[in-house]
Amino acid sequence: MKDLVEIIAKSLVDNPDAVEVKEVAGEQSLILELKVAPEDMGKVIGKQGRIAKAIRTVVKAAAVKENKRVVVEII
C-alpha cells in the first residue's frame, strides 16, 4: 500500500524527491501519512479534493483485496 501511494503521489507533483509516505499501524487499520512539498500540496489535493478522494478510493480498493482497512492522510 505504501508503494502504491508513493508512486501515485510522485507522478502528480513537481518535486518527487520531497514525497514521503509513513505507515502508522493502528488497532484496526493502517494509516498512511502522505507528506509532500508545500508548493505541491494543491496538486495532490486537487480542486475540491477530487484527486485526494481518487487516491483514497484506489488505495481502499487495493486494501479490500488484502482484507485490510487503510486510511490515507495528506499532511
From TrEMBL:
Asked if the record carries the keyword Cell wall biogenesis/degradation, the reply is: yes
Q: Where is the protein situated, by its record's location annotation?
A: Cytoplasm
Describe the subunit structure. Forms a complex with KhpB.
Q: What family does the entry list?
A: Belongs to the KhpA RNA-binding protein family.
Give GO MF terms, alphabetically. RNA binding
Q: What is the lineage of its organism?
A: Bacteria, Bacillati, Bacillota, Clostridia, Eubacteriales
Any one GO biological process:
peptidoglycan biosynthetic process
Kindly state which keywords UniProt assigns to this record, in alphabetical order: Cell shape, Cell wall biogenesis/degradation, Chaperone, Cytoplasm, RNA-binding
> Keyword RNA-binding, does the record have it?
yes
This one is known as: RNA-binding protein KhpA
Q: What does this protein do?
A: A probable RNA chaperone. Forms a complex with KhpB which binds to cellular RNA and controls its expression. Plays a role in peptidoglycan (PG) homeostasis and cell length regulation.
Q: Which GO terms describe its cellular component?
A: cytoplasm
